[in-house]
Queue: 2 jobs
Job 1
Amino acid sequence: MNRRKFLTSGSTLLAGIFVAKNPLNVFADHHESGDHPHGHELPKLRYDYDALEPHIDKRTMEIHHGKHHQGYVNKLNAAIGDDHRLADQSIEDLLQGIDKVPMKIRQAVINSGGGHANHTLFWSTMIPGGRELKGKVAEALQADFGSINAAYEKFNNTAKTHFGSGWAWLVVDDKKKLQIYSTKNQDSPLMKGHTPILGLDVWEHAYYLKYQNRRTDYISAWDNVVNWTQVNLNYTTAMKG
Ligand code: MN3
């Protein structure tokens, strides 16, 4: 997270541009009951593949969104098959109710459904140029971590030190407090009743083409494109839920 932006605080006027029909605003493929001819779908990006340059390169975006994320969507749909009880559920509902998913496909839903949900959030919380950290989420970060700086250090250290493939998260937990932690592989915080509001993909496929083994450089670069306006909206939505 960007230290400069992180240190900025104060009131905000929230742009009401992300009109939502689902709790997190970002899961565009939420199914209406009985209407699911295509299953889960790869969400369209709000920006071009090259729009996050030079921080996140075009080729990585093409492969990451067009191949990796599409692959998670395809495998999720294949795992669900024609089970209408599961096919009627949004990706959020599937992961929040993971214990009710049949054992024979549960791990596939964790991996591919998690991959779908995690990347959908990831794309939506980036924007060319980034957005300033302010508003309710900034106030909550100060309240829950002691200071914006402390929250900043915790998130970055979590992302830097996570071993192997996984994600660093800022979540609203079941007690409506913010938490920062990492998960392995594509495990989603939704599976333990937490609402992710910001996630950073630290799988090597997210940065290896441009940054090779330099995960720290990737994390610093990502700081420049974080859409805190969306994160703040995710936060206020999660607090109402
Ligand atoms: Mn990824």
Job 2
Amino acid sequence: MCGIIGTIGRGEAAPLVLEGLRRLEYRGYDSAGIATLVDGRILRRRAEGKLNHLADLLATDPIAGTTGIGHTRWATHGAPVERNAHPIATDRVAIVHNGIIENFADLRTELTAAGYAFTSDTDTEAVAMLLTREMENGATPQEAVARTLRRLHGAFAVAIIFAGYPELLICARRGSPVAVGYGEGEMYVGSDALALAPLTQRICYLDEGDWAVLSATGAQVYDSEDRPVDRPIKLTALSGAMIGKGNHRHFMHKEICEQPAVIGDTLSAFVNPTSRSVVLQDLPFDLAKISRVTIVACGTSFHSALVAKYWFEKLARMPVEVDIASEFRYRAADMPEGGLALFISQSGETADTLAALRYAKSQGQYIAVLVNQPESSMVREADVMLQTLCGPEIGVASTKAFTAQLAVLACFAIAMARARGKIDALREAELTTALSEVPSRIAEVLADEPAIEVLGKSLIEARDVLYLGRGTAYPLALEGALKLKELSYIHAEGYAAGEMKHGPIALVDENTPVVVLAPSDAYFDKTMSNISEVIARDGPVILITDEAGAAHAPAQAKVIVAPTCDPLIAPLVFAVPLQLLAYQVGVFRGADVDQPRNLAKSVTVE
Ligand code: F6R
């Protein structure tokens, strides 16, 4: 949420920062800006809207300088207009900021009373003014930063440059991540390693409360008590080559199509194909003795948690509680001794999920995280990391991370079932064999994209769409509706099929398409009854089912035939037609499917 990047060194800063911002644009894209130092003075270019606007501005009005910072914004305080775009600057400092300064209003009152005139509506400007006041009172940049950080409440990452100090860039982290990159005679700072991937793979992650002073040749990190500390420099596995679109029109399409490969990679880390058993790393707890599993996540990751609940309960007979992270935190629930709390987050940075993790830790739970980013904040605070091997997901709406999360969760449920003696080796072998078929089944769905495209066209005029499913297809219905909302801006809601008659059916008429997910499983007949109820009210139906199901489809329904598969893997396979459908509708409607309006990847504010 908001991307920050900075460089200090030999080369021209602006082009390098602009390229870095392109890699960070998925974190926010309502305005962007760059500041550099030229002859000791701060120069700034900022533009409203997508990064292209800033690029156009820089093309006509370039800025020089070898020290620079840049920002791509997801607005929190102040409208997405140029005045509020970062870098926020005074004649002394320029700052880029990700996060929220919670006490900004008090600071603003104090500084206004002291004669400082604010020109933006941002919380960030209070930080710029505090720094400026310190420096006007004779503080060095380092002293100004140390004193200013002590005045700030909230979660943030910042990068700052200082007029008159061309050899200096300072960054700080509290809550939001900051990566410092080591180049050859050049240093970098970024919101994540992805931003720095083509520049360097030598990365140092700041710890909570750290701040760092960068020159062209190195960095000195200080902890929250301003003591010099050494933080390890790690080699990130990310490389610049992983972040292209390939031959695809959109990142999202590329990522949907990557699913057979990334699920294959992910499964190969969890399933031994010879013994056909699940292999987990050594765990610091005994799976057989876990008293309860609590799974917490947000958005799409929450939907994968809901699917997992069915698996843990059915296969492992394990009591499971699932909640969205923001509400879980506010419930202050007592958590049982010997409980396992599992946090699912593609980014590993989502603020609400991280806060929920800390709460569960305070309740003495074992902490496991399921992430796609092994170098993320959640991993640093967990006892166990389970990783999806998806590579970077650039499309803001999650696709491949979702199905890969499901793959890992299925493995974890199988391992727990086995540890608790609820399934035997033979059943485990059957289940892992079913899982190993996921990549091929998804490839079959992808081959059917032209048919799904045709059905996508039939939805482009819809104002509202309902999604229905039973069992594990219910969370998929929620996910299908979320994807359609995000990608096409059509209002969509997902419901448990059995709930339709308790209210949502009032919405059904000839103008409200209903997408029904119904693999031919134990619930198929009941869901077919719901379809009849929709058709009786003239509701257009798109039925996503398998071959056996299609044979029973009513003539009025348009049908997407997914491959026949084991019920365990149906959620992974059926997710893909939902993604393609939403993608196609979005593309037909001319929406920006990679960067839907108002959204940001990695939601680091609460
Ligand atoms: C929707 C989507 C979001 C994320 C949510 C949690 O397509 O991507 O709903 O799933 O913001 O993000 P992570 O998984 O990074 O915690």
